[in-house]
Write a structure and sequence with these properties.
With 322 residues, the chain is α/β, with parallel strands linked by helices. It is built from eleven helices and nine strands. The structure holds D-malate. D-malate is lined by residues 33-34, 37-40, 92, 154, 158-160, 182-184, 200-201.
């Protein structure tokens, strides 16, 4: 008889039992960005809906901002793979694999993906008293302004950084980027007129745009958003083919028992059909991901293919984080 190591024996006995009883305590979802930003907002709505399908088990959100989301992500990678510490993040998970050359984890191997949640549009915005009235004048004004124009983001690797990087290379503008621990604080400084511009997710900017608290120059979708009908697409506004949507996904650490992954995926799939979640997502200009993309396999495919997609773009821009 092959002698099992003690750990393997324990895992053999407790794994299925632990998975059977899962969840038996509070689940933590780490959001690797500050509270009040788009990732935080999407996560809180999703956690509330998922809880209903996990026996009412409490799901708490823990904000761990900094370093473009890699600090919070590393926290989850190091956590016990038992289903009680999860991550909700977005395309920044894939871009960090190229941007950060000393990541303390291998993005391709570190996760047990659960499923994708939403694809959020982005918006090019400025403080409400920024003079240009359209994107064409915006570009000319900044070029001719002669003083530095600031653009807030959530650190190298954030969606706001990615959008800003693409926007600057497309327009040949040289904006002064100001990194924050999330675009919640970026929005606060835009409202306070402490910074000039940002490219942030519509899930964070729809309210301030509709309330005329910030100026919107474009949305980064193929067609205009139902919730922001007066905001032109970037393509209409002169940035031909400028499209960017920010996929968000739910991830567990590698080694999480398949039965736990399955339970979490079932709860996610049910949550994405929850009428309250759908309405709250629609109110902030986004939609729940289709069921076929809210699967572990689809999330894995997206995570890996996006690493390959963004690597050459990032290398060409030469904008590494370290
Ligand atoms: C990002 O730009 O990556 C996100 O907006 C960060 C956040 O959710 O605050």
């Amino acid at each position: 008889m092959r002698l099992l190591t003690l750990a393997a024996a324990v895992a053999l006995v407790t794994g299925p039992a632990a998975a059977q009883d899962y969840p038996s305590k509070t689940i933590t979802i780490v959001v690797p960005a500050a509270a009040g930003g788009p990732t935080d907002t999407i996560s809180r709505i999703t956690a509330l809906a998922m809880s209903k399908h996990l026996g009412g088990q409490q799901i708490v959100i823990e904000n761990v901002g900094g370093a473009g989301g890699t600090l919070g992500t590393a926290r989850v990678v190091r956590a016990a793979p038992d289903g009680y510490t999860l991550l909700i993040y977005h395309v920044g998970l894939s871009t960090a694999a190229t941007l950060y050359r000393n990541l303390p984890y291998d993005t391709r191997q570190a996760f047990a993906p659960i499923g994708l949640i939403t694809d959020a549009p982005m918006t090019i915005i400025a403080r409400s008293d920024f003079p240009p009235s359209n994107l064409k004048d915006f570009v000319t004004y900044i070029k001719d302004r002669g003083v530095k124009t600031t653009m807030g983001n959530a650190g190298v690797g954030s969606a706001a950084h990615l959008c800003g990087m693409l926007f600057m290379s497309e327009t040949k503008l040289n904006l002064t980027t100001v990194p924050y621990r999330g675009t919640g604080p970026v929005m606060n400084d835009l409202l306070g007129k402490q910074i000039d511009t940002s490219c942030d997710q519509a899930t964070n900017t729809t309210g301030p745009i509709l309330g005329k608290q910030v100026k919107a120059y474009a949305v980064t979708t193929k067609t205009r958003l139902k919730s922001l009908p007066d905001v032109p697409t970037a393509d209409e506004a002169g940035l031909k083919g400028f499209e960017l949507a920010v996929w968000h996904g739910l991830f567990a650490p590698k080694g999480t028992p398949p039965a736990v992954v399955q339970k979490l995926n079932a709860a996610l799939q049910a949550a994405l059909k929850d009428p309250d979640l759908v309405k709250r997502f629609n109110d902030i200009s986004t939609d729940p991901m289709s069921q076929d993309r809210a699967t572990p396999a689809a999330a894995e495919r997206t995570l890996l293919s996006e690493i390959d997609r963004w690597a050459p773009i990032i290398k060409a821009a030469g904008q590494y984080a370290d």
